[in-house]
Design brief:
It comes from Streptomyces boncukensis. The chain is built from 16 helices and 13 strands. It is an alpha/beta fold. The structure holds ligand GBH. Ligand GBH binds next to loops.
C-alpha cells in the first residue's frame, strides 16, 4: 500500500495540503530592481559582523529572475500549495504612499504562474523585511508602523486578492520583536527592554489591523486569513523549582506573549514574573485586545526543535541595561539526540507534545497549518551527481509521523509546508546553512533536487493514492 512505504501518512485527512515554503529576502535577490527600497535586512547585512561572512540577500537565489524555473520545480514536486512572502519594500519602497506597480507586477506574474501550474498560492505579508524608512521613524516600537502595515496589506490584497485566497499576516513575530529588538541577532539589531516589548505589542496590533483590511478587501469571503507563530516546546533541564520557574518565564516570552492575546483575549499572566518593571507598558490602548483577537481561519505553526532551559543569572547586572530577552533563562545543549548543522536537536516527538499541549491550553485555536518544518544538513554532491540527504529525509519523515500522531489524537492540522524549497539566505547564518530540498549552487545558480525532493514527491503521490509511479522493488533505505 502507499502508506506502507510512507507510514507518516497514516491518519492524515484525504484533503491534507502538502506544500513548500520560502521567504522573499531569503531567495529573491534583485535588491535594487524595479524600484525596491531598502529593508532593515539590507541595512543590517551591511554592518560589520552581523551575518556569517558578511552575507547579504543582494542576489540570494536570484529567484526574482528565475521564478519560472522554481515554479517548474514545484509543479514537478506535485505540491498543492506554495508559501512565499511579499516584500513590503517592493510594494511600497518607503513603507507608505502609493504602491510601485512594478513590485506588485512581480507577485502578479508569480501568482499567475503558480495557478497555471495548478498550485495554490499562500502569501505571507511580512517575513521580516520592514522598509528601512519605517525603521528610521521608530520601526515596530511605534504604533504608526502597525497602521502602515495594514495599508500595505490593503494595497497588496487589492492587486492579488482575486487569485490569492490564503494570507498569512506575520511570520514569527517572536523573531521580529525579540531577535530584532532585544538580542540584536536579527535586523534591526537593537538590544532593548521596553522597545522590544512595545514592538511585540505593535506587531500584534499590526496583525489585527491587517486582518481587518484583508477582510474588507474580500467581500466574497473567499480569503482564508491567519498568522504564523513559532511556538516553542520548552523542557526544563531538571525538575528543580528554579528550572521550572525558568521554563515558565520562557513560556511567557516565547509562547504566551502571542497566544494569550490572539486566542485567549488577555495579556500573559506571567508578565510581571518574567519582566519585572519592564512589564505592562503605555503602548497598550483600550480595544487592542479585541482587535488582536479577531477570529482567524487558521493558525500557522513553524516548528523545528525543542528547547531545554535552565535558570541562569541576569546577563547584565545593571537593571537599566537589561533587554527583554534577559529573563534569567539559559538554553542548554542536548547530547542525547542527533543535532542538525544548526546545532538543533532532532526530537520529533516534541512536535506531537507541543500540538497536544497548545490544543489543550487554548480551546479557541483555529485549525492548524504547519507552515514550516525542515532541517539544515551538510549536503554533499556525491560521485553520482546526486545529494543523498538521508538525514533530511529521516527528519521530515519522522516529523510528519509525529504530526500524524497528533492528528490521530484529535488535533486539527490541515496541511504541512516543507522549509524550504531551495537552499537560501539563512539570516544571520548566511549561506552556510542549507535547508533546501533543492540544492542551489550559488556560483552558477544551478538547482539540483536532493533525494529529499524525490522522497517528498513520492510521498505526495502516495497520499493522493495515484500510484503514478511503480513501487521500488528493493527494500526502502530507511525512508
Ligand atoms: C524560521 O525561523 C524562519 O521563518 C525562516 O525564515 C528560517 O529560514 C527558518 O526558520 C530556519 O531558521 O543562530 O543567532 O543567528 C525560525 C527561527 C530564526 C531560529 C533564526 C534561529 C538564528 C539565530 N530561527 N535563528 S542565530
Amino acid at each position: 500500500t502507499p502508506q506502507g512505504r510512507f507510514p507518516a501518512l497514516t491518519g492524515l485527512p484525504a484533503d491534507f495540503v502538502f506544500g513548500a515554503a520560502t521567504a522573499a529576502y531569503q531567495i529573491e535577490g534583485a535588491h535594487d530592481e524595479d524600484g525596491r527600497g531598502p529593508s532593515i535586512w539590507d541595512t543590517y547585512c551591511r554592518e560589520p559582523g552581523r551575518t556569517a561572512g558578511g552575507a547579504t540577500g543582494d542576489i540570494a537565489c536570484d529567484h526574482y529572475h528565475r521564478y519560472r524555473e522554481d515554479i517548474a520545480l514545484l509543479r514537478e514536486l506535485g505540491v498543492d500549495s506554495y508559501r512565499f512572502s511579499v516584500a513590503w519594500p517592493r510594494v511600497q519602497p518607503t513603507g507608505t504612499g502609493p504602491a510601485d506597480p512594478r513590485g506588485l507586477d512581480f507577485y502578479d506574474r508569480l501568482t499567475d504562474e503558480l495557478l497555471a501550474a495548478g498550485i495554490s498560492p499562500a502569501a505571507t505579508l511580512y517575513h521580516w523585511d520592514l522598509p528601512q524608512a519605517l525603521e528610521d521613524r521608530g520601526g515596530w516600537r511605534v504604533r504608526e508602523t502597525a497602521e502602515r502595515f495594514a495599508a500595505y496589506a490593503a494595497v497588496t490584497a487589492d492587486r492579488l486578492g482575486d487569485r490569492v485566497h490564503r494570507w498569512i499576516t506575520l511570520n514569527e513575530p517572536f523573531c521580529s520583536a525579540f531577535l530584532g529588538y532585544a538580542t540584536g541577532r536579527h535586523a534591526p539589531g537593537a538590544r532593548e527592554g521596553r522597545g522590544a516589548l512595545a514592538a511585540a505589542h505593535h506587531l500584534l496590533v499590526g496583525h489585527g489591523l491587517a486582518v481587518r483590511a484583508l477582510r474588507a478587501a474580500d467581500p466574497s469571503g473567499a480569503a482564508r486569513i491567519g498568522i504564523t507563530l513559532n511556538p516553542d516546546r520548552l523542557l526544563p533541564a531538571t525538575g528543580s523549582p528554579a528550572d521550572r520557574a525558568a521554563a515558565r518565564r520562557a513560556e511567557t516570552l516565547h509562547n504566551e506573549t502571542w497566544f494569550d492575546p490572539l486566542f485567549a483575549g488577555r495579556y500573559p499572566r506571567g508578565e510581571a514574573e518574567t519582566w519585572g518593571e519592564l512589564a505592562g507598558g503605555g503602548h497598550r490602548r483600550d480595544g487592542d485586545l479585541a482587535l488582536i483577537g479577531a477570529p482567524l481561519d487558521f493558525l500557522g505553526i513553524n516548528y523545528y526543535r525543542p528547547l531545554t532551559v535552565a535558570e541562569a543569572p541576569h546577563h547584565d547586572p545593571d537593571p537599566a541595561a537589561r533587554t527583554a530577552t534577559d529573563i534569567r533563562v539559559a538554553e542548554l545543549p542536548r547530547d542525547d539526540v542527533r543535532l542538525t548543522t544548526m546545532g538543533w536537536p532532532v526530537d520529533p516527538h516534541a512536535l506531537t507534545d507541543l500540538l497536544l499541549d497548545l490544543t489543550a491550553r487554548y480551546p479557541e485555536l483555529p485549525p492548524l497549518l504547519i507552515t514550516e518544518n525542515g532541517s539544515a544538513e551538510a549536503d554533499t554532491v556525491t560521485g553520482d551527481g546526486r545529494i543523498h540527504d538521508t538525514e533530511r529525509v529521516a527528519y521530515l519523515s519522522d516529523h510528519l509521523a509525529a504530526l500524524a500522531e497528533a492528528v490521530r489524537a484529535g488535533v486539527d492540522v490541515r496541511g504541512y509546508y516543507v522549509w524550504s524549497l531551495l537552499d537560501n539566505f539563512e539570516w544571520a547564518r548566511g549561506y552556510e546553512q542549507r535547508f533546501g530540498i533543492v540544492r542551489v549552487d550559488y556560483a552558477t545558480q544551478r538547482r539540483l533536487p536532493k533525494d529529499s525532493y524525490h522522497w517528498y514527491r513520492d510521498l505526495i503521490t502516495a497520499h493522493r493514492g495515484h500510484q503514478a509511479r511503480p513501487e521500488p522493488t528493493a527494500p526502502s533505505t530507511g525512508e
